[in-house]
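Each field is listed here:
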Amino acid sequence: MSPASFTKHYAEPERAAGAVRHYRWLTAHAKPLRQPALHAAGPRFLTFERIEGRPVRPEDLPRMAELLGHAHGAAWASDLHSASLDTPHHFEDGTQFDDYLGPREVALRRRHEQGYLPNKTALHAMLGLLQATAEGPCAFYKDSNPRNFIITAQDIVAVDTDDLSLAPLGYDLAKLVATLHLTYGPLTDQAVTTALLAYNSAARRYDARLGTTDRGQLDSFLGLHAVLTAPYVGRNGYHYSLPLRFTHRGAS
């Protein structure tokens, strides 16, 4: 009998090919992340090993933060130490690995057009926040929401490689904190601080420069995620909302 499997279908071949490329990059450069085996890849589908377990819950945040710290540290040491947050990186086949600034500037402008930013002043504040956070060593962003990891009896398994781009250290941890809030309600300040300490401790094992994300930086990332995730409130299990803040570090 063949192992149990899960097949994900794609409307566009480019999306399926991108997910495979992301999967293989993570396998090569973010070794602390366990992923399900990829059994087959077609033009519009991917078939993976089926993993039994549950999504991430708030009590898993310290373990998840430590895992992300190790994954980001390993990826920096393996490939991203030469990357820049404002310049697209490239996979081995020459295709583009999106930079941090460009796609998010486009997304913030779209949120303004959609009405999630009330005026151009708010838009310019968020663009300023984005620019202010584009500093330090590069990590990667894989959309770390609670559904994109499976907690098993023995392990944590990362699933869904549809999204992958460059990001500052701590940005994807902030995505997890933000989406846990959206799913389960506000986390305590102590829980967030404890997670950040675990993340920094793990990342620092790969280079001393990697374990320096402070709470102000994390809060700035949360401010960006509040705007970028606003259209999904009320969908995908997101029952709560994040407060929108239109100031950035250094502003009153």
Q: What stands out?
A: The first strand starts at residue 5 and ends at 9.
